[in-house]
Records
---
Amino acid sequence: MTAAPGQPARSVLACGEVRTCLLPSLQALDRRAAAQLLRLRADVDVRISERPTMYVLSPEVLTGVDCRLPTSNGSKVRAVGTVAARAALTEGRLLQSTAYFSLPAAGPDIRRPWGQYLVRPGLVEPFGKLPQQAAAEGALRGAGRGELDLGMIAEGLLAQLRRHALLDRRVPFKSSPTKLRWVARREPEGERASLVSFVVAEGGLRTMELRLPEHIPAASAAGICEDLALHDWLLTTVQHMLDNSRLGTADGPSVVEALQPVVVHLLHLWMPRAHVDPALGHLWDVLEQKPGFSRQWENLSRRIRDRLALQAVATPNQELSAR
Amino acid sequence: MLIFAASDKGGTGRSVTSANLAYHRALAGDDVCYLDFDFGSPTAAAVFDVVDARQDTEDRGLHAYLIGEVSEPARIDVWSETEHQVLRFPPPGCGRLVLMPGDVSGGEFATGEENLRRCVDLLMTLYYEFDLVVIDLSAGRSYAVDMVLEATAQPEMSEVTARWLVFHRWTRQHVGAAASLVFGKRGILAGGVDRGHDEEELRNSIRFVRAAVPDPESPLWSQVSPTQSAWMRKTDGDLKQLASNHGIGYSQVLGSVPLEPVLQWREQLITDEDVLDSQIANEATWQALNQLAGRLTDDKYWEQA
């Protein structure tokens, strides 16, 4: 089944990778600065929404690729096309970049002129038939040498943004970036999108599998993945700060000092589904039930507020007894 | 904060001492990353006892990253990957300890715009992520030294605190060599100024670490003959004078690490178990390393001399 030239190919699989990190800037960016930062193209506007949180989304940029796809069973599949990449900034504080593409079930056995790939942004065509299972598993495992590396494209965009002259390149606190790899298998139209798995792996890596009806664009899938990646980053980062020994045994002003960045920069960022395609919002329900993202966040933020409250109670007492 | 570990000669204990400093800081709760920029002979994997994990990351190390063959250098989480019995069970509340290994096959390579770009990106990314980043550089005025001097001179790294530790042994040759590595015609200072560093600022960010220093007062030498003892004191005094003449006297020294068989022969991290339980390592060594680790970020020791 080879799509005739000119006819848009139906995709059977979409793959992507999201990188999430703290914006290297002491101050959160305001709307104008954020729009300037994410202005990746002169011909397409940056999208800005200010309710319920400020969220700025860059236009997509394309990267032409002609290389092997990562596969789990070692089968060599050459693929040609374009990978779409975009960046998002939430509340002027958290920066994300996503690289993603869709794959049709099969493609022509010869390479076509570039113009034909360019009119299908974000579509990568395999030579011959696509081994769907192996390609999906390969995308989650990540690229080896010489294979299509979404991480490299996402990281490249992130590095470019972090070098922007608008930023003072100083961070209010140290934090680890995370990466989330996702694949979405296409379902017949009419089915409901579903979340198959969400796995937290070592070294800041998360993987996620989706089922996605045909009428929902891959960009929407990228959107929900960015939303989940952002909230997962918040949980990971705040949990790591609370686990640290300097906080565990600390007392006095050092507690306030250690927790201050969380309160100033992070606590207000929790807003699941705020900028997600309504057709995919229900995917959150799965994670809310188990493991319970929001439950954990509430618990963490309560712990922080209680620690600070205790500190506030203790301080005047100490001052009085010192007199 | 970035800490560059340099030395003029091999065998100064640069790698093993800087790895121990990283370990002490991680125990104290800092997130620490250790980069093996010793491109000629990467040894860090052995020091942290992660040789097996290291094999899995073969050819995806820092060398492969800097020449653009991989998009990110491999990371090894020391606590979870080490084969060392004690390191496997870090105390609760300690920070992360991550090793970025070099490549066995990677030698020195020519410097280029692209390599430099990647080096700056890497150092900045790690600076945003870790409390302390220790970069172990090849001995001498190597390519690695030139590259990081060039990288830290870039305007985007102007806000980053970078400090240099120059390791040398406590001998006449080593004292002279360490001084010339920093102050010599082709030294770090001159090389840094050529690349746009402010001389005063760079000078103030360099401190010396005396390694494998025999202490004449130590009980180790209590049995030696009076003549030997007098000679040791005299030589020690002469060396202090020599160091001071070379401009690497007391005020320029961040600390010294005593002569320690465990460091010399095993070239591994010294754990509290080595000191307290099996008692193969000296308490004084542990203390010295701990003190040195604390001084890395203590501004008092980095003020203008």
---
Amino acid sequence: MYSFFNMNFIIPDILLLLFPFIVIGSRLFCNYRSQLPWRIANFGFIAIFILLNFIPLASGEGRFFICNWKIDDFGVLMREVLIISAILGIWLSKDYFEHGADGKPQMHQIAEFIGAIAFATFGGVTVVSACDMLTFFLGLEIATIPMYALTAWNKKDQLGSEAATKYILMGSVATAFELFGFSYLYGFAGSLHFGEIQQAVAAGTNPLLWVSVLFLFCGIGFKLTLFPFYTWAPDVYEGAPTPVTAVLSVTSKATAIAFLVVLVFGPLAPVQEQIAPLIALLAGTTLFVGNLGALKQSRLRRFMAYSSIAQAGYIMVALLGPATTAKTAIVYYLFVYAVSNYLAFFIFGIIGHHREETFASLRGLSKQNPSLAVALAISMFSLAGIPPLAGFFGKFHLFFSGASTGHYALVAFAVLNNVLALYYYIQLIKSAWVDEPDGHLSPLRLTRRQRGVIVALSISVVALGFIPFLSNNVFAGFSF
Amino acid sequence: METILFNLIWIIPLLTVLVCVPLSATRTGILKAIHATSATIVLLIVCFLTYRVYALTGEPANELAAPLALRFFTDIPWLSMMGAHYTVGADGLNILLLALTAFIVWGGVLVSWNIKGNQKVFFALIQLLATSVYGVYMSFDLVLFFVFYEMEALCMYLMIACYGSGRRDYGGKKLTLTLAFGSSMILATLFGLYFEGGVNSWSIMELSKVSLPMEFQMWAFPLMFMGFAVSSSLFPFHFWSPDGHSAAPTAVSMLAAGVMMKMGAYGCLRVAMFLMPEAAKIWLPYVVALLIFNVVLGPFIALRHKDLKYITAYSSISHLGLIFLGLAALTPVGLRGASLQMISHGFLTGLFFATIGMIYERTHTRDITEMGGIMRKMPFLGVGFVLAGFAGLGLPGFSGFIAESTIFIGAFQQDSTLTRIVTVLAILSITTTAVYILQTANRMLHGPLPKKYEGLTDGCFREKLVIVVLVACLLFIGICPGWIADMLDTSIAPIFEKISAATQPVISGIGG
């Protein structure tokens, strides 16, 4: 059972675990201005990403390491999403450690910042690899706790501290819910191991199981910003520094959805049909509420918070499908969502450096900086799901997965909601493209790195959709 | 070779956009030259291929594409996870619509020569819009079809809101969101088609071979038909069109009214009616009832408007109503008439919006009460406008007459009292059409010339060329409709066969 030989597949995970210690430790050997931690971080993340691509996919059940660490196709692809998110996150944050509007850096201690992001990433990896509830829970906590610290990273910002307090309180309640759910699940199955829980669930159900399912969904509902539990998101997204908001909206969301995927297609797989109405209800209400909330926003990050609540609802639709279809759809969508979302946040970050982060600051962007306006339009249309951009294909996969088990009504509802979403994304595009320039706005200056990243992300948003052959490669062959 | 040329139709506009990306936005001369050349090349390719399709009529087509007789058939696996393919092909119907699109895009590029604002982005958006329309008409795979169909939303808002006139943001949003609403209705049913069809294919040909469950058809057909009808401004989804068209720049009005509104009617015929014929027979009589608004009331509303673009938009609404009358007739003659009307109306409304745009560029108003006597200053543009009007009111010799009379004959053949009543009303409403067109032409072109218009000039060579070409097309269809009708008949035959073979008993609709 334990194959101690040929365990190369575990190398990236071990590197990822050591990585934050190396980055933080590197501070011992250099002064606070040194670029060393940042260079190590870049090199490390990219190296791990490349190593991950060497793991061949289509491994069936997946490979096991000491029986509670599983690496399957979904896990490998989720690792890639998480690492892409981490890389883009630290690139986005770099500017905040260099200069601000007043010439001083907004945040300090880049090494610890990167370390926190790396810990969060490792937490996500733990969630997708876990084979028992203890590891699973541990992963979720490792992913969440660094985010509390990251939210309050800008110590001078009162909003940030408020957001962090709110987040930590809400997060603890959510954790309590989850633990409660886990304990009932343990009581029901008599085992921590997913395989044995699955057998117990398949053998028969009783109310204890439903109570635990309900609590687990409530707990993860906080982290995934599902309908009744989403209220913390807009405040935290607005209070946190922009790069942290971006990481929060991608890494943290990816971790939470991975949690649900592992749960629904793992231990709870035998009762997936019974919990489908619950998932459908959460999905429908979440995407509707997210879309409604976004309609009237005028601050960019608050707007993105509601937009990402709606996206969580769309992702939930896919959970209704059969395992393979749903997992592929969700991973593909997360890739697309990460790229589109980071593109938006990069642009908002640039705006935020020189101006306030509101819709009004975007006025006249198409005249002052046409390329930035084009990039903004690309990212917004992608998030709205307009072909041929990647977002459309992502959503198409999600709806395909939802419809494959006959949930046409929910899919139709989600699709109609897309029109609502298109309205507010267009609202944002209108500020940038149609409104006349405002003379009081300070001009935007782009550094070479910002320009490069924005061009690269725009191209990938277009190409991931325009040439969806790529998606083929990623899932069918993965012939690296 | 011809297959490659055929696939180039949508690739060339896209390549043009890519070629122009590195060019500086200030070098407008080169940009416009590139775009005009590319539009001309596509036009030539499409004309050649149209001729080839005509020449190949009767010869056996690709067997893979049965039951449709498709030329230049290409089928490449695309998104393997969902079973979507890249499937394109041409039969008489869609190659003619492609030809129409090529003419309108070519005209659209030429008339936007002096557009204000960032020309680089504008022309890129026109080419993207062209790609989307070409793609819709070419594709026979539902995913591919939908991708192209929905692509328009991306271009339309930006073009109207940034380059339009009047209430451009409002008009652009209204148009884009209503169209997106329509396409979301279509998307919702597409999944149903795939999973209920049970052939694991999005191909229109494959799906047409199976008979979909009646329960599914009963809810899916109206949803899909209305989804398509939104973009053809069928009542009650017509409200976007006047505001959208009047706010849009000339080229966008031409494209939107000329070809994009036909995408809806084309989708109704090619996808909704072809794949769900049983439900079509049950639901279409209700559609006829909706048409009373489009066909009969549309012209009356046009009569009361003073803005040239509003008048033309309502005239489009009434003409598109006639297309649906032809479709709802469910007779071969009616379907042929509907397809003829799609092509004919594309040219005539293109000509309408082109001349209006040229006149507006000079007078800076579209209010007909403020104009007068401009025929004296701009005889060429005036004549172009009047000819478009004549074609619109169905003067024999122009394409409008052929198309409309075919529709009326086809609709009258349908054995249903309601259809016949609507047909008679539609025939009578042509009088109203004549009234508002002649009244508009009279107020605008004749009478005393206001002082401020003393310095107006007639169209330049570029503008005259567009008018001449579009008028020539109208006359060509009007004088020799036989060739086109032959091409249409062969491509409509399989669709009609499928509809007439629908096994469900025909439940007579209202008044049947």
